[in-house]
Here is the input.
Amino acid sequence: MSKDINRREFLKMMAALPLMKLASDLSAFRLQDIPFQEPGSPNILILVFDALSATNVSLYGYHRQTMPNLARFAEKSTVYHRHYAGGSFTSPGTASLLTGTYPWTNRAFHLYGSVVKEFESRSIFNSVPGEIYQRLSFTHNYLASILLHQFGGDLDLIKNTKELCLFNEYLLADSVFKNDRNAAFLGEKTITRGQQGEDIQLPSSTFLSAFHRVWRDWNNQDVVYKYRDLFPRGLPSANAGPFVYLLEDAIDWVQDSITFTEKPFLGYFHFLPPHEPYHTRKEFVRMFRDGWAPVSKPDHVFSEGHSEKYLQSKRRWYDEYIAYVDSEFGRLIDSLEQQGILQNTNIIVTSDHGEMFERGIAEHVSPTLFEPLARVPLVIHHASQENREDVHIPTSAVDVLPTISAMVGQDPPQWSDGIVLPATTDHNNIGDRNVFIMDAKSNPKKGPIIKGTIAMVKDRYKLIHYKGYDGFDNEFEMYDLINDPEELDDLYSESNSLSGDLKVELLSALDEIN
Here is the structure.
């Protein structure tokens, strides 16, 4: 790269280049075209696959072989078997990962949530020295995009979501109101489609919603027709931010960007698949029509009334979508290995939350915090790692930021709620700690936590506290996750001394926050 072009100018040029497919990548450039990397400063690549539950991943013992490429990648990585998201949907889950703090600290626990102002300069992007690291990001998920733009002062490039879409439904929110994305997204969505939720009932504009539907259908039909054979269930799309896209395009862009950007880099790339709707590619359709069914579980008090048949159908579609995600993940890793980038790169593979198909509940918009919603994959490959390691103690999304700090020789920040993950550096003393997960989408942003669900994992046990719900206030559940991984036997009892001890710890933590 010419010395007359600085790194920001180079990235702007890269953002304007058309996407190149893998085959053309491998034939169009020479290894000497890749920017030289000084030894001692590893690249850091963070790959987030949205709504990917560890309970549906074959690496963690799932019945279906959903992710063979991740299993292959794990053979030279560290696998965390009991890793937990910070929340049960995008906003709190992503904010916990990016800031190293729980939702009750960063306060991004609402739909379209954002972190409080002091955390705009406290993220993984400033946990590495900006004068050394090139910092890049992209997400399909508009809720995650709100957070990335909050941290924009510490980023060299935020790839605009709509640039990797085949069709984008938003008219103004993503282009005109760039500094007020959360309000703009919510406002445009309300005007064109209304808002329906636990505490929100807002109608759409009759005229504008009708106009929007006509405009959307007219512009979308050509795209759907073009790809109908490749994606017979429909194109990958998003409901939180309505658009259609190809995961292949995003993988290609990531591949090109990290190949030709200055080194070292820190890249955070947050893909929407396997988030619903589960529109897998044709070769994965019906691959799991095997007649298998998981353990049947009784409806929960927060059941949505879905039948076992419906839930098993949704689960199968979800599993087939995961298989599509895994194929694209494998393609990216193979490309990085062929280009020699893998040997200088620490790779973190994880998710922001899980997905659930049991107890009458589908997907993840639920006040519950059972394992399918809360437990997510975490696989970390060190640039020099040749053998697999397995970690079986509870870890959290808030631990990723301190771990990245340690990777680049920085002290973990004092304000983080996390610790340096064991087996990734020499900081292996994890001690006796509690891990927390939280859903408080109906709680006021400021002030105490008066309504929500808080789960605490300690050693082999999980205690779940339901607070402020009509007809289900101040309730508790407790499960032995080792002997009862399906969470079928609620052990909570006021007369159980262990229940009492865990309850005191959870409520003490909540009182301290409040």
Observations:
- The chain has 13 helices and 20 strands.
- The chain has a mean pLDDT of 86.
